Amino acid sequence: MLETPYVTSYLTEHFGEADYPSIEGYERVGGYQAARKALREMSPEDVIELVKTAGLQGRGGAGFSAGMKWSFMPKDDERPKYLVCNADESEPGSYKDRILLERGAHQMLEGILIAAWATGASVTFIYIRGEYAFPADQVERAVAEAYAKGYLGDNVMGTGFHHDVRVTRGAGAYICGEETGLLESLEGKKGQPRKKPPFPAEYGAFGMPTTVNNVETFSHVPHIVEKGADWFRSFGTEKSPGTTIFGVSGHVVRPGLYELPLGTPLSEIVFEHAGGVPGGRKVKGVIPGGMSMPILPAGQLDVPMANEFLREQKTMLGTGGVMVMDETTCMVRVASVISYFFRDESCGQCTQCREGTGWMNKIVDRIERGAGEDEDLEVLLDVAGKMEAKTICAFADAAAWPIQGLLRHFRDDFVEHVRQQKCPFPESFEL
Amino acid sequence: MPTITIDGREIEAAEGRTILQALDDAGLLMNGVDVPHYCWHPKLSIDGSCRLCQVEVEGIPKLQIACDTPVRDGMVVHTQNERVKEAREGVMELLLINHPLDCPICDQAGECKLQDYSFDFGVKESRSKEPRRALKKNVDLGPTIVFDQERCILCRRCVRFCREIPKTGELSIFNRGDHSVIETFPGTPLDNDYSMNVSDICPVGALTTKDFRFKIRVWFLEDVPGICTGCSNGCNIHLGVANNKVYRYLPRRNDAVNDTWICDAGRMSYSEIAAPNRLRECEVRNDSGQLEPVGLDRAIEVAADRLRRLIEAKGAGVIAGLASAHASNEDLFTFKRFLAALGSETFGVAVVRGKADDLLIKAEKASNATGAREIGFGDARTVVDRITSGAVDAVIALGHDVLQEGLLDNEEPLANLDTVILLDTQASEMQRVANVIVPVRHAAEKLGNFVNEARRVQRAVPAVESNWEAYSDGEVIAKLGAALGLEGFDGSYDARQVARDLAAAIPAFAGIDLDSVGDEGRVLAGSAASGTER
Question: Is B128 part of the contact surface with chain A (CB cutoff 8 Å)?
């Protein structure tokens, strides 16, 4: 089981309490009151409007407005509507959803219930990555408790609203975290993203109108309903309100989870909260939001951790997985690890992604081996460019961006490898 | 109907079509407007994965794949600008980094879309220094197809074909990323009635048929448009011809008949053309009961003598005609005219039946059963009944289809007849009871029209010449008619003229002759579905 976050806020404040994962413990601190309020006192439109006003951004990586996404669900449609909770947390460097599942399953379920009310969904599928066995057990237990209490099933909380929750475990593919890849996998097919349109709101799980939201996105919702949009907006920045859970890893004194307002400077997270680099060494670079987000060099760590600021530095918040690398780190090895991951995880449908991820990985590995040539760097950038914005899903972009980021900020590392025909960072982590 | 502008040219598109479909509908795809594509196929679901067909649509920031972008009225599309060309070159370069450079030993060379598009849209040199993917070169997928995994570009046409057309689903993509490979599941080989189509739709040399591979370089082949004669569907084909030999049948697209497909049995029926059991010599039975080879003139003379003797003794009523459902309209119309001039009233057509499905395979295993019936040949059962009851003394048979289960189980009832004149392409038990045997041409060796089950008249043109003296059934009958001195027979035979005569004589054929029928066929008058749509 994970430690509780070092810094907590409304999402995680009770995570240290032993009974909080149970329905009794959750209700003891006021749990399910927001769902009661939404189902009894608010219309679905009111809920959507509230979440829009609060400005809740999806926490799965893309940062799209959650309320807006809910409003895409067709209104006059006879078909059953579905919600999907994306708990396929697979982004290397990201482990925030895990604790939300382990300790806060009822908080997430309450958010799901409110979202179901808002969108008219009759079933929610919670898709949990297969490796998350303990979190999945916790969610299944919480779902059973909610059914026993009458919070799920027929006549939820005596309101006549019907909602079912089904828990599905994934089988270990990164691409199943992409929402349409997830839907394919959920349906028992190979996890390969669908071409869009049609978007899931029109043709989603089993062909029905579907909204897919991340675990954390749902978890914010009860708090917004309970305390209001203005309260929510008192956290974070104007464009990115609320908190998020940063998962800090790598060369820091205190790796772990930190629930902090969006907009917290990256340097504050790395140096104040996580204690900086151990052994007095210097930071070389930091990946701000999980492995698919471009790296930032030591000189750019003052950036506030919100998309409107990170975009100016050509990176994004992603899933809030902060990966810190110290001065011993070989950035070509970093590129090797990253490109291998994406080569291995590409679903293989689109030409650019299937072939490009493999090619990039082979070039990077050759440079690291000491067999790089001058023109390799341009080829690498060119291949990354050919992959960008040309495929069915954003995976190819996610594979291209970090390589582009490494070449943007640490080109010298690559050049030195080629010049010396060996890796000039003997103290770096081993491949 | 939405009007879209592609490279400055206005095109009317049907509602709900995508850009690529609209180009295909207009006959412009790769024929005026070059939008290269691999995964898209007009008769399969849209996959959108090869990403080669990216085009620029004004107003949309990202390039869009033409195969999956629906047309909108007023849409302006650019398929040839720098941005599009660069994206295309990118895809081509990526497809080639792992593709083996084995064109010199690849069967697909010459009709390979990777080769063609590389010349037309690709980059001239590879920047890849990495070793190519090493995979299995010779995978036995089933009874008909061999698979080269290294050549595969993973367009997944074959996978979709198996799922969507025969609905057998034998092929799947295993693994992911650049280690994706197409495989079959253990114990379920690629084995269905349409399996060889995967070789046609494979844009590269990954899927080849065991039958055709290594036989001949495709650039030596001439594609002759024709029709498959294996059943009454009349699938449109290209006969691949070189050295006066048919090397293969490939399906020829006809959306009203066979889309772009052909069944394996039909595809393999090309082997009948040069089969060892083709009849090659005229033969007549001598006084000692032995067949001896003769020239055609002699065979006609003997046949005429025998018939004349019978007519003089008993009248023409004892002569029966067995038409062939394999013969062309022109053959059959000539035969019908011959029987009428002779005064015979006993005639019919025998049609072998077999299994059928709801895709292409029809129960009647002959190409022109419908034509024979339209021209006036009824069920051969009446002929058989008169033979077995002793009312017939002579039979003129086109082919041996009468020897089938339920009609004449064997040739024995014919042994007692005074005269059996057999015009046939292949050896059969009928030879044992025949007095005169004349080899005739296969559909691939003559000009003629055939009527399929849906009453569509379709044309076969001579693709090869038989290496021995052989004529069409109609021509032999015309000679026989002249030898008998029948009215309207002077021994000459011109299939085009016969077709015109047929069109004038039988209302259903009005206006349909060997010229007007065209390469895609025409439906008989009075059909429920006339025109070109199925």
Answer: yes
Sheet holding B436-439, edge to edge: B291-294, B282-285, B436-439, B419-424, B394-398, B319-324, B346-350
From residue B459, give the alpha-carbon distance in Å to each of A199, B514, B522.
Answer: 48, 7, 10
Beta bridge pairs of residue B223: B240
Q: Do A359 and B128 touch (CB under 8 A)?
A: yes
By CA distance, what is A362's nearest residue in B?
Answer: B130
- How crowded is residue B456: how many other Cβ atoms within 10 Å of its Cβ? 27
Q: Are B177 and A356 within 8 A, CB to CB?
A: no
Q: Is A275 exposed, middle or buried (0-12, 13-18, 19+ CB in 10 A)?
A: middle
Out of B65, B68, B178, whose CB is closest to A355?
Answer: B178
Sheet containing strand B3-6, edge to edge, reads: B9-12, B3-6, B76-78, B54-57, B64-65
User: pLDDT (tens digit, 9 = 90+) per residue, B365-375?
Assistant: 999 999 999 99
Beta strands in B189-314 (DSSP E): 207-209, 222-227, 236-242, 245-251, 282-285, 291-294
Interface mutation target, options A349, A367, A392, chain B, most CBs of B under 10 Å = A349
- Structural domains present in chain A: 23-233 (3.40.50.11540), 243-275+282-326 (3.10.20.600), 331-420 (1.20.1440.230)
Of A398, A348, A354, A406, the residue nearest A381 (C-alpha): A406
Residue B530 is predicted with a pLDDT of: 45
CB atoms within 10 A of CB B473: 27
Tokens of B333: 């119309």
- What is the enclosing helix (H) or strand (E) of B268? helix B264-268
A224 vs A5, A37, A58, B91, CA distance in Å? 21, 12, 14, 46
State the Cα–Cα distance between residues B460 and B23, nearest whole angstrom: 29
> For chain B, which domains are there?
3-95 (3.10.20.740), 128-272 (3.30.70.20), 282-441+469-489 (3.40.50.740)
pLDDT band at B414 (very low <50, low <70, confident <90, very high): very high
pTM of the model: 0.94
**Which residues in A lie closer than 8 A to residue B128 (C-beta atoms)?**
359
Q: Quick one: tokens of A87?
A: 């708990």
**Taking CB atoms and an 8 Å cut-off, how many pairs form between chains A and B?**
89
Average per-residue pLDDT in chain A?
Answer: 96
Q: Give all strands of the β-sheet with B456-460 in edge-to-edge order.
A: B448-451, B456-460, B522-523
Q: Is A65 helix (H, G, I), strand (E, B) or coil?
A: strand
What distance in Å separates residue B262's CA from the closest CA in chain A? 28
Residue with tokens 């007549």: B284
Hey, is the C-beta of B177 within 8 angstroms of any chain A C-beta? Answer: yes
The minimum CA-CA distance between A153 and chain B, rounded to whole Å, is 38
Residue of A190, A354, A379 to mutate for B, most B C-beta atoms under 10 A:
A354
**Where do runs of H (alpha helix) occur along B109-222?**
113-121, 157-164, 197-201
Judged by CB atoms within 8 Å, which residues 80-109 of B form the interface with A? 87, 90-91, 93-95, 97-98
B307: Cα separation from own chain's centroid: 37
Give tens-digit pLDDT for A339-366: 999 999 999 999 999 999 999 999 999 9
State the residue for tokens 């990777």: B114
The predicted structure's pLDDT at residue A377: 97
Chain A's closest residue to B126, CA to CA, is A379
CB A366 within 8 A of CB A377: no
**pLDDT tens digit sequence for A42-69:** 999 999 999 999 999 999 988 999 999 9
Which ipTM score applies to this complex? 0.92
Average pLDDT, chain B: 95
How close does chain A come to B91, measured CA to CA in Å? 6
